[in-house]
Write a structure and sequence with these properties.
12 helices, seven-stranded parallel β-sheet, three-stranded mixed β-sheet, alpha/beta
């Protein structure tokens, strides 16, 4: 019997947090995977994985042809979550997405599906505590969120040329993450920080639930241009999140509550430090603005109904696995 030919897919951002987990899932499901990487000598989490590496960058259109040719699906995970300058978000998240779409149209017009990893930040927070759905008018509150919304618009512009799907994960956490990791790091040192002004509520997404949703979005029947929020279906107050974070880590911590103005100044100082060090600051004024919003809530009914998605990692389980990984790999 002839050996079954593996279907080839492209993953951008495969060296990063979400992308590397997606690559592992794709390989375990029998796909042949191509990864677009900027530096062939720094492949990070892809080390040892059976993937084809193509050197290129979404901000350089001339580098994309070899990556997109002959693939069935494109999973666009690459993007900036923090930047030294606001314009960098738009260069990478919006224009990078446009370049990749144009390359697909030119070199792979028969593409079966283009899947964008966007963000809840593109939709913005809920103004009244009602979970947002894809029909609500987006109101992002940061350049990151606005750049992801513009990336979504770029993708939607191609929905009649080949099938496209947009996923909006909420705050994603899990092994290898370096952003939410800071909360784990401070908690392990006996400290949690909040912005004063009342309780806040949010949906969260463990990374393996996001990769499962990505595979469902690729393989399932979806209307071109569909937008899906991805998260555990239940919401948590920040107090619940904090208590579970400490309990699953077996740590105790005191909480410092910062007035918004003080948090804003901390963000400003962090930005200045980032300019001096030439590294983007994780804490900045726009991140403070996002963190200060009361409701980061979304409605997951659409992805549950259309694609039979069910989050398999409730927050307690996800936090336990994440603590274990950070400690095993000596991040903590």
């Amino acid at each position: 019997m002839a050996q079954e030919i593996k279907r080839r897919v492209l993953v951008t951002g495969g060296t990063g947090f979400v992308g590397s987990h997606l690559v592992e899932r794709l390989l375990s499901n029998g796909y042949a995977v191509t990864c677009l990487v900027r530096d062939l000598h720094q492949i990070r989490w892809l080390e040892g994985m059976d993937v084809q590496l193509v050197q290129g960058d979404c901000t350089r259109p001339e580098s994309l042809a070899a990556a997109v040719k002959g693939v069935s699906y494109v999973f666009h995970c690459a993007g900036l979550t923090k930047a030294k300058r606001a314009r960098d978000y738009y260069l990478v998240n919006q224009l990078g997405t446009r370049n990749l779409l144009e390359a697909c149209a030119q070199y792979n017009p028969g593409l079966e599906k283009f899947i964008l990893v966007s963000s809840q930040a593109a939709a913005g927070p809920s103004p009244d505590g009602r979970p947002l759905n894809d029909s609500d008018k987006p109101q992002p509150v940061s350049d990151y969120g606005r750049s992801k919304l513009l990336a979504e618009n770029e993708v939607s512009g191609y929905k009649d040329r080949f099938p496209v799907v947009i996923l909006r994960p909420t705050a994603v956490y899990g092994p290898r993450d370096v952003d939410v990791f800071e909360l784990f790091r401070w908690a392990s040192r006996g400290l949690t920080i909040e912005i004063s002004g009342g309780e806040r509520y949010l949906n969260l997404c463990y990374v393996e639930d996001l990769t499962a949703a990505l595979l469902l979005a690729a393989e399932g029947k979806t209307e071109s241009g569909s937008i899906y929020f991805v998260a555990e279906s239940r919401a948590y107050s920040f107090l619940e999140f904090r208590n579970l974070l400490l309990a699953t880590g077996g740590v105790t911590a005191r909480t410092i509550k910062l007035p918004y103005g003080v948090a804003w100044l901390v963000g400003l100082v962090a930005e200045i430090g980032g300019l001096i060090s030439k590294k983007p600051a994780l804490a900045n004024r726009q991140k403070v603005r996002e963190a200060a919003q009361q409701y980061w809530l979304c409605d997951t009914a659409k992805i549950e109904n259309d694609l039979c998605f069910r989050a398999e990692y409730p927050l307690q389980k996800g936090l336990e696995l994440t603590w274990k990984w950070y400690r095993k790999n000596r991040w903590l």
